[in-house]
Design brief:
single chain; 335 residues; alpha+beta; Jelly Rolls; 7-stranded antiparallel beta sheet; 3-stranded antiparallel beta sheet; 12 strands; 16% strand; binds 2-oxoglutaric acid; binds fe (ii) ion
């Protein structure tokens, strides 16, 4: 009884905070750290119910654009095929595409990632370095090396993916309304004796940056069980089980007990592989035993409400995409 009352009180407080937060967001386009914290707490408290309800309202109010015969990196797709693929993802929480990046594109992106200076996760402090270094495959100093979003935009190949019509169309089918590009990430991973696993996203967790979102993952190196496959718990993107009653990181043993081995997937793949993942579900990158992994990631959401990332300068957009960047899907992260 006391527990129930406590929960009701907490729910009431969070609801009030979020309602104020939404008003502020409508006015300013920004979410305060306090509101963002409330979003994460409400996600856990309602086991995702709050997100589902608010998402439905947003989806209805924004609506969809027609996806007629889209062409892009995922191939030439009719609406029916897009729907089928998105339905698989709605069921499982992830989808692995048949098509992938061409060998030319892969080597061009890898060369870029070997030349462009990168921040690294400092294993002592658990923070990202301010300085940038050149990634050296032979001298590991960290489990993870993240390119800044400004660096990402220097690559024309990556911009081709960021502005790809087929990815956008798939995101719309999955999310249910016109999607917004809301985040980009690109990083190298190396073995590092299991150090800084939490900061390197190598322990199971859920992401909760937005009300509803999804990520495209691109493997730029061959990924097997030893060099950091993305691990995903099948069908964990729906209601949170009662055992997951907090935010944070979870051990493999916790996850095994709650979801069962049959649902714990290691997504291995050749370089060039493309997948879509709803990382509201439980996931991690497996820490590496040998080799390396280079991964590019594009995130789409239904609303920017949530985590605040600084805007990116429009001037970084390459000529072919300057016009496109003004469209609804892209304009939110550029200024
Ligand atoms: O490294 C991975 O495969 C997972 C990274 C992760 O947690 C994320 O992108 O949200
Ligand atoms: Fe994550």
């Amino acid at each position: 009884m006391i527990k129930k009352l406590k929960r009701a009180y907490r729910h009431h407080i969070l609801k009030r905070k979020l309602s104020t937060g939404w008003q502020e967001f409508r006015r300013t386009g920004k979410t305060s750290p306090d509101t963002y914290r409330a979003l994460r707490q409400m996600f856990v408290l309602t086991r995702g119910g709050y997100n589902d309800k608010v998402a439905q309202e947003i989806i209805t109010s924004i609506g969809k654009e027609r996806n007629e015969n889209v062409e892009g990196i995922l191939g030439y797709l009719e609406e029916k095929e897009l729907k089928e693929m998105a339905n698989h993802m709605k069921k499982d929480g992830y989808y692995i595409f048949d098509s992938g990046l061409s060998p030319e594109k892969i080597s061009s992106i890898v060369n870029f990632a070997l030349e462009e200076p990168v921040h690294y996760l400092n294993p002592e402090t658990g923070k990202q370095s301010v300085e940038k270094i050149k990634y050296d495959p032979k001298t590991p100093i960290s489990p993870r090396y993240d390119f800044s979003r400004e660096s990402i935009l220097k690559s024309e190949d990556l911009q081709d993916l960021i502005f790809d019509d087929s990815l956008l169309a798939f995101a719309q089918e999955y999310l249910g309304c016109k999607p917004i590009l809301d985040h980009l990430a690109f990083w190298w991973s190396q073995p590092f004796n299991g150090k800084a696993k939490s900061e390197a996203a190598q322990l199971y967790h859920f992401d909760m940056d937005r009300i509803k979102f999804m990520k495209f993952f691109f493997y730029l190196t061959d990924v097997d069980t030893y060099n950091g496959p993305h691990c995903y718990v099948k069908n964990s993107h729906t209601k949170l089980p009662p055992e997951i009653s907090r935010d944070g990181r979870f051990t493999d043993v916790d996850i095994l007990k709650i979801y069962g081995a049959q649902n714990m997937l290691e997504i291995v793949g050749k370089k060039g592989a493309i997948m879509a993942v709803d990382t509201r579900g439980m996931h991690k990158g497996k820490d590496l035993i040998k080799g390396e992994r280079l991964l590019f990631q594009i995130e789409f959401a239904i609303s920017m409400f949530g985590q605040n990332y600084s805007a990116l300068p429009k001037s970084l957009i390459k000529v072919p995409y300057r016009e496109k960047a003004n469209q609804y899907a892209y304009k939110h992260i550029f200024e």
